[in-house]
Design a protein that fits this description.
The complex is a heterodimer of chains A (516) and B (539).
Chain A lengths: L5 E4 L3 H12 L4 E4 L12 E3 L3 E3 L5 E2 L4 H6 L15 E3 L7 E3 L4 E3 L4 H20 L1 H4 L11 H17 L2 H10 L4 H8 L3 H12 L11 H11 L6 E2 L3 H13 L3 E3 L4 E7 L2 E7 L4 E3 L3 E3 L3 H10 L5 H8 L7 E8 L16 E4 L3 H12 L8 E5 L14 E8 L9 H19 L3 H4 E7 L1 H8 L35 E3 L13 H13 L4
Helix pairs in contact in A: 1-10, 1-17, 3-9, 7-8, 8-9
Chain B lengths: L5 E6 L3 H12 L4 E4 L12 E4 L2 E3 L11 H6 L9 E3 L2 E5 L5 E5 L2 H11 L1 H25 L11 H15 L3 H12 L2 H6 L5 H8 L15 H9 L2 E2 L2 E2 L3 E3 L4 H13 L3 E3 L4 E7 L2 E7 L4 E9 L3 H6 L9 H9 L6 E8 L18 E3 L4 H12 L8 E5 L14 E8 L11 H18 L3 H4 E7 L1 H8 L35 E3 L13 H13 L14
Parallel strand pairs in B: 1-2, 1-14, 2-11, 6-16, 14-20
Antiparallel strand pairs in B: 3-4, 5-10, 6-7, 8-9, 12-13, 13-14, 15-18, 15-19, 17-18
Helix pairs in contact in B: 1-10, 1-17, 3-4
Classes of the chains: A alpha/beta (516), B alpha/beta (539).
């Protein structure tokens, strides 16, 4: 095997995006993946006999326009799916449907219906103003290079001129707030507020009242600037990215778990696989959770003590479990027609309920009344299930990684709690179940290598954002180890299915010629 | 009456209103302070509600008050004496305690007793917090820049801000951002491991704030309580001799010495405006008092929604005033005691009874107390800051007797179904029971207890929802966002109208800085010489 110019550890979507950019720039890139297929959390996984489910993401915005065109993803078979609405399920069947420009449902106040499109547009404009910060490596805070000065200048321009003075004041007022207060100031309808709040907190150990949740919502909205959210089905995106890597001459090797990143004289010199094989390269890019990259793959002894200590301070505790069901037919949800089942369904009656569900996870308990995000991806991609059959996917919050008594003992009870909650809205569901799978945060950690089962490889809190993500000293993709870079969700601008960390990392690597 | 009765009218005789008025008077203005209550001080008062006892029944310790203002208004000569507090402590549920002494060697020995590792960490922690204190103090007596303005002054002020940060290394800037945005619990966990020590040092960060120890942004509040000076000791706490009323009394005395007046029992109904200019105030009695300058010491929500005509306030500002985060989260008990309660967990003669005493020894208990408040209940196991100031100050209680003050976090603005006398008593009982668990004779020593919920704070003092800081001290409401972006330079929406309360930068606490800063802006607009002090050079 020839010595590659660059090794990318982990074929998650950010690893693939980064590898594709590097390969297109002429580097000989080798992507190493621990699992037997590429895609990481976004990859489809088998369930029972003849079913597949689409990994962890359920309802996400398409990849950004820049990545789609720069990597020619359409040519490789990628197409953003069909936009869906969000339906908040109501115990009394007064469901609420929320689309980009409309919201409708029984008992919805006219004022709320009228306010929603403008509110969303305003926050999309706020998200747009953050573009220079999100689509560039986080700027340094002192001795700024020219590029970073441009980032700040563009940000200032977008805020002051792009938004205009009054909107900028409003942006400054809300950007540090919690979503709870902003929504209570704007809307009356509990269902509508709960649905927006879910977008701000799902995947994070945060409740609607946690300060900083307006920013997490803006980060999610950011994705929707380039296209409405769709139901993730797992295949297309990963296949297109894999093809993009291979078409540019990159290589992908699955079932090749990396045990160590080799460091010689403070420089990365390659990797060692778990079976002992070593592969040399002066450029190693890790898509693995930064905590695992530094603590396990590099090892604290090879790092500066202060830096190693900071690595231990990175926060990111997974609080969302996943339930996958294989069904022998389309389930029935009370008060919801079959045509509506292709949408994203939420079980979250009010922001207060979300906050209460969140309270439990602070103390190592599962919420007795979990908050659910439900999709039926087989409606969008029939290949996931045999004819007439379906798969149902549920993200359930809040279920903490550090469950009291451990997940071995607690798994069944947690799964039952989710099923019981589902049964309140889909009474006949249980009879249709052919196979089921429950992934606790501990299972997510084991299956995807994400430390503590956190989707985003680290909390998206303010103190771990921008130039502090994942930590000071490695926030600009380069690390203290010469030739070792990060490219995963643990980096700026963070998690979700955006590919932006991978793209930003590739740009930094190419700009610096592989030097920090 | 036509013409002007006064050069300036200040609405509200709280400590910031008085400070503001004093600096205006010092510049030669004829100033009138109008106060709705029959007594002055706002939330900085000593009241004799039980014969022979004086209660500081709102604010109760004095550490933030700016020494620059103390000197500039000569408050020492006007009778203000601050006695430093020497300790703080937390009782543990297993019958032990953790004491934080001001004497460094004793403090270290006590830390060692609980965790040798934490004793070392405390050295780093103290140095880091001190660094942030020094940084922040440089901004207290300055007017925040307006990010929407391109005036030279605002650009200069931003440059000053950047320069201050530029004096730090890039690592330190990052550490400061972390400090500014983290939760107190997570921030302390970077230093300490011992549960009791973590809980002890977290407590100060939730006082007065509708946030929990795990809520982002609470680490900064720690600073807000730690940056005070008493006699030049940064971070020290102190009692005003005679209770907190002595602070407002001294400022009022300094102000009166300059020949100005205070009218109590004068409730302002509206700020009068003509031709986009403030022209005076109208009292509830119907009397109108004319002045070209009107300064409101009321909180920002109350100022714009209650005492200004909606037609005089731009709609966007009115909207922001309604959305201003100002939530009550604290209660208070003032207790007359027949003698000094004993605490069996403490060794005899321990100096720890002289300081802050706490009864919450884990972060979980602190966080659960917050969960209760979020659900509009008072905490079943609240965080209490228990003090017996009469140990220092014989003026507060008759000889041999004592006065205790208990600050309680959390207490809801409105429990389900609203406050009733029974509920208030039950709230008080929860607090008394918690103290009694550690002091068996406490209950029997109680002669009288005044129980205060956010409701009483709002009704008596006029603090909206009973928020002690006139608006949450969260990072979205600080600096040029306090009270709202675009209005952080003390000026109101019409000419001649100003704000000087804790709703404005740098926020709450008995600090006096908002009052002084507002005075500086007013004098600037009048082209009068600035009588307010600049921050004093760092030690």
């Amino acid at each position: 095997m020839t010595r590659p110019d660059a090794i990318v550890i982990g074929a998650g979507h950010n690893g693939l995006v980064c590898a594709a950019y590097l390969a297109r720039a002429g580097l000989d890139v080798l992507v190493l993946e621990a699992n037997d297929a590429a895609g990481g959390m976004a990859a489809a996984r088998p369930l029972g006999d003849g079913y597949r489910v689409p990994g962890l993401p359920q309802c996400v915005a398409p990849l950004g326009r820049a990545i789609r065109s720069e990597l020619e993803l359409e040519r490789h078979g990628y197409a953003p799916g069909r936009p869906v609405e969000t339906i908040v399920l109501d115990p009394g069947s007064a469901h609420l449907a929320i689309g980009q420009d409309r919201v409708a449902g029984d008992g919805l106040a006219q004022a709320d219906a009228a306010a929603w499109p403008g509110f969303r547009r305003q926050y999309l404009a706020f998200a747009e103003a953050l573009r220079p910060l999100i689509e560039n490596p986080p700027p340094r805070l002192k001795n700024l290079p020219r590029g970073d000065r441009m980032t700040f200048a563009k940000l200032g321009w977008k805020l002051r001129v792009g938004l205009g003075r009054e909107a900028m004041y409003e942006f400054l007022r809300v950007v540090g707030m919690n979503i709870y207060d902003v929504l209570n100031d704007t809307f009356d309808d509990e269902r509508l507020k709960a649905a927006i709040a879910i977008d701000a907190v799902l995947g994070s150990a945060m409740g609607p009242r946690t300060p900083g949740t307006v920013l997490t919502w803006l980060q999610r909205l950011y994705g929707e600037l380039d296209g409405a959210a769709t139901i993730h089905s797992g295949n297309r995106l990963v296949e297109a990215l894999t093809r993009a890597v291979e078409a540019a001459g990159g290589r992908l090797r699955c079932s090749a778990p990396v045990a160590r990143i080799l460091v010689e004289d403070g420089k990365a010199s390659g990797v060692q696989l778990e079976d002992g094989e070593t592969i040399g390269s002066g450029l190693v890019v890790s898509n693995v959770d930064p905590r695992r990259t530094f603590a396990s793959l590099v090892g604290a002894p090879r790092l500066d003590t202060l830096f190693a200590n900071r690595v231990t301070q990175i926060r990111g505790k997974g609080v969302v479990a996943k339930l996958h069901l294989a069904l022998d037919g389309l389930p029935e949800f009370r008060g919801l027609g079959a045509a509506a089942l292709g949408n994203r369904l939420l079980v979250a009656p009010s922001m207060r309920d979300i906050e209460r569900a969140f309270n439990h996870c602070k103390y190592g308990e599962c919420s007795p009344e979990p908050v659910l995000e439900i999709t039926l991806p087989s409606i969008h991609d029939p290949s996931l299930a045999p004819d007439g059959h379906h798969v149902l996917s549920v993200s359930a919050a809040f279920m903490p990684y550090d469950l009291d008594g451990g997940w071995e003992a607690g798994r069944e009870a947690a799964a039952r709690a989710v099923l019981a909650r589902l049964a309140q809205f889909a009474p006949g569901l249980e009879a249709r179940i052919v196979a089921r799978e429950f992934l606790s945060p501990a299972d997510i950690e084991a299956g995807y290598g994400a430390v503590q089962g956190h989707w985003h490889h680290g909390e998206l809190s303010l103190h771990q954002s921008f130039m502090l993500r994942p930590l000071y000293g490695a926030a600009r993709y380069a690390t203290p180890v010469d030739g070792l870079f990060l490219c995963g969700a643990g980096c700026h601008p963070g998690g979700g299915l955006t590919g932006l960390p991978g793209r930003n990392a590739a740009r930094r690597i190419l700009d610096t010629g592989g030097r920090p | 009456m036509s013409g002007r009765d006064y050069d300036a009218i200040v609405i509200g005789a709280g400590h910031n209103g008085l400070t503001n008025a004093a600096f205006l008077a010092k510049a030669g203005l004829r100033v009138l302070v109008v106060e709705k209550n029959e007594y002055i001080g706002g939330a900085t008062v000593s009241r004799e509600l039980y014969d022979g006892w004086k209660y500081s029944n709102c604010s109760y310790v004095c550490s933030l008050f700016r020494p620059e203002i103390y000197n500039a208004l000569d408050l020492g000569r006007h009778g203000l004496k601050v006695v430093p507090l020497t300790a703080s402590m937390t009782f543990t549920q297993d019958g032990d305690y953790f004491g934080s002494y001001s004497e460094p060697n004793v403090r270290r020995r006590e830390l060692m007793r609980h965790s040798p590792r934490d004793a070392d960490a405390a050295v780093r922690f103290d140095a880091d917090v001190m660094r942030w204190c020094r940084l922040i103090r440089g901004f207290l007596l300055r007017t925040p820049p307006d990010p929407g303005s391109l005036k030279p002054r605002d650009i200069f002020e931003f440059a000053y801000l950047l320069k201050k940060f530029h004096e730090l290394s890039e690592t330190q800037i990052c550490e400061f951002i972390r400090f500014f945005t983290m939760s107190i619990a997570e921030y302390l966990e970077n230093y300490f491991e011992n549960e009791t020590i973590l809980a002890h040092y977290s407590g100060g960060s939730i006082i007065g704030t509708g946030l929990g120890v795990y809520s982002p942004g609470t680490a900064y509040v720690l600073l807000h309580h730690a940056m005070g000076d008493v006699d030049g000791n940064v971070g020290a706490w102190g009692f005003a001799r005679g209770g907190m009323g002595a602070v407002s009394g001294a400022i009022a005395s300094s102000f009166r010495a300059l020949g100005s007046e205070i009218r109590t029992g004068a409730d302002v109904e509206q700020i009068l405006v003509a031709g986009r200019r403030a022209t005076g105030v109208r009292l509830a009695s119907g009397e109108e008092i004319r002045s070209g300058i009107v300064v409101s010491n009321l909180d920002a929500r109350r100022t714009f929604t209650r005492i200004m005509d909606a037609d005089d306030v731009p709609p966007a500002l009115l909207e922001r005033a309604r959305k201003f985060k100002i939530r009550g989260s604290s209660g208070k008990l003032n207790i007359a005691l027949d003698g000094m309660p004993t605490f069996p967990a403490l060794p005899g003669g321990s100096p720890l009874t002289l300081g802050h005493m706490h009864f919450t020894d884990t972060l979980r208990r602190l966080e659960r107390a917050y969960d209760d408040w979020k659900d509009d209940r008072w905490s079943a196991d609240p965080y209490c800051d228990f003090l017996v100031p009469s140990q220092y100050d014989p003026t507060l209680a008759p000889p041999g007797k004592h006065m205790a003050t208990v600050f309680v976090q959390y207490c809801p603005v409105e429990p389900e179904g609203g406050w009733t006398d029974e509920k208030r008593a039950a709230f008080g009982q929860t607090v008394i029971d918690q103290v009694a668990e550690y002091s068996p004779d406490f209950r029997d020593l109680i002669l009288h207890a005044e129980i205060r919920t956010p409701r009483e704070l709002e009704d008596e003092v006029g603090l909206t929802e009973g928020n002690i800081f006139q608006g949450e001290l969260t990072f979205d409401q600080l600096l040029f966002n306090r009270p709202f972006p675009g209005y952080a330079q003390y000026r109101g929406p019409v000419r001649g109208m100003y704000m000087c309360g804790s709703s404005t930068h740098p926020g709450g606490g008995v600090m006096g800085a908002p009052g002084a800063n507002a005075a500086r802006e007013i004098l600037r607009d009048l082209r009068r010489p600035d009588t307010t002090p600049a921050e004093y050079p760092d030690d």
